Amino acid sequence: MSEIITKQQNELTKIIERFTQKDGVHPTAIPSLFFMRVSNTAGQSHGVYKPSFCMVVQGAKEVWLAQERFRYSPADYLVASVHLPVTAQVTEATPDVPYLGFKLEFTSSQILELLHDSEFRVDLKQNPKRAMFVSQIESSLLDSVIRLARLLDNPKDIPVLAPLFTKEILYRVLQGQNGIILEQIGMEGSSTHQIKLAIEQIMNNYDSPLRIEELAEIANMSISSLHRHFKEITAMSPLQFQKQLRMQEARRLLLTESADASEVAYRVGYESASQFSREYSRMFGFPPKADMKRLKETYDQEQVVTEQVSNV
What we know:
Helix content is 50%, strand content 19%. By secondary structure, the protein is an alpha+beta fold.
């Protein structure tokens, strides 16, 4: 990394350290901006990435989307352009040098506004690409990130300047080597935008039976096109996507409420408790009861719950 980027990252590290005195996810005065701090590499966490721009400022992290692994460190940034169920793990962190993360959430309407205001031209016929990518960080992008973070020391400036700096960050990402992925999600009529509508339908109704014909109609695609494009964008089928959502919600319910596995299975959409237990074991490595016992023996309740929502 260049000397300029190293200097920028040192400044950003100091800002995040001041606003994260303990481990966990820390919302900021900027509604879409979150800081993360983790002091050990305890294990994997499961969650749903919202559309977001993510940076590792200190340490390193790995994210699995289905079977694909994305690794990023202070030399990179990661972008998820749609809601995606993932597994994540901090791979470099110690109490003395904790993992520090920066996450900025955005919407497809913000991307669409940028496309309208700029000279970007999207080819609607272009094949959709994976909705998650890692790119190399650049000084111009870091500069806009730091200016956004500095606003936390001047709260009165946030309402006016935060939207401008956020727009600049997204503009820099659009200019980058993988900017076309953001272009596709922002443009109505693109296959990616149509699949986004199907994803929203699954997320809002994950506990209901999956009706492929209904999804295809919402996406304005044939059933075969829906399956093909959905997997190109999310690395999984619609059914696999729904199962991930169900399992993650089931684990959250088991951790936070005094409900047994059979009740939770029903609440997340399963008619068979045994099928639920099998699929839960396949995803988390243990059946529900054993998983809860293991987690509660390893961590206190508050820490586990924090890990579960750290990707949301």
